Amino acid sequence: MNMQQADPIKMDYLDPANALNMPEMADMTFAMDFLSRVKEGVRNLSVALTESVSPDLRALLRTQLRQGIALHQEISELMIRKKWFHPYGLKEQFQLDMLSLQNTLEISKQRFFPDDTSRKGMFDRTPDAHMGGSEA
Amino acid sequence: MKSALHETLEVHELAAFKTICLTTSKTMRALVSDPELKDIMQQDVELTHVQLQELNSVLANYVQAGVAP
């Protein structure tokens, strides 16, 4: 197996020093992902609402839209309180995003699973075997 | 429920998106360590579950009424 890398790894994942603040940084990433999913949900619902005419469907979508907006408020307030999100401080937000970018680049260079992790052959059939998945 | 075909497609799109969201929230919650974030994500899982059930029943009605692909 070729262990040579053109781009040298600065971060050693086996060194406990690099695990410092890792749970907090991970939480920040999960919260950001969550926020953008909720945001996209609100936008999708508004688009669907303006495309629908039936009163029953409009009522349902309106309720779901309200719930989505409430959830968006809750998650963004939490992120602001935790200092994971700085909507009023462009400088802080920029620095934080650059830091996550650098960390993410370092993490993506790690060889976490150098060996083959395929589970193929461990099960008696594939999930799509009944519809001839392997022949498709 | 009276409906037009384009409404079925909109609801279908929303249901597909919400399915991804529910799966993501449910799996990622296991990796979160902050209790407050965990709590909100649990709320999201429960809410999305209900919303997805509602969309599912709407789609089932459309299929029954014949306004589905």
UniProtKB/TrEMBL annotation, chain A:
It comes from the Bacteria. Keywords: Capsid protein, Sporulation, Virion. Pfam families: Coat_F. Residues 117-136 are annotated as: Disordered. Residues 117-128 have a biased composition (Basic and acidic residues). Its main location: other. It is found in: Spore coat. GO terms for biological process: sporulation resulting in formation of a cellular spore. Belongs to the CotF family. This is Spore coat protein CotF.
Automatic annotation (TrEMBL), chain B:
It comes from Paenibacillus phyllosphaerae. This is Ferritin-like metal-binding protein YciE.
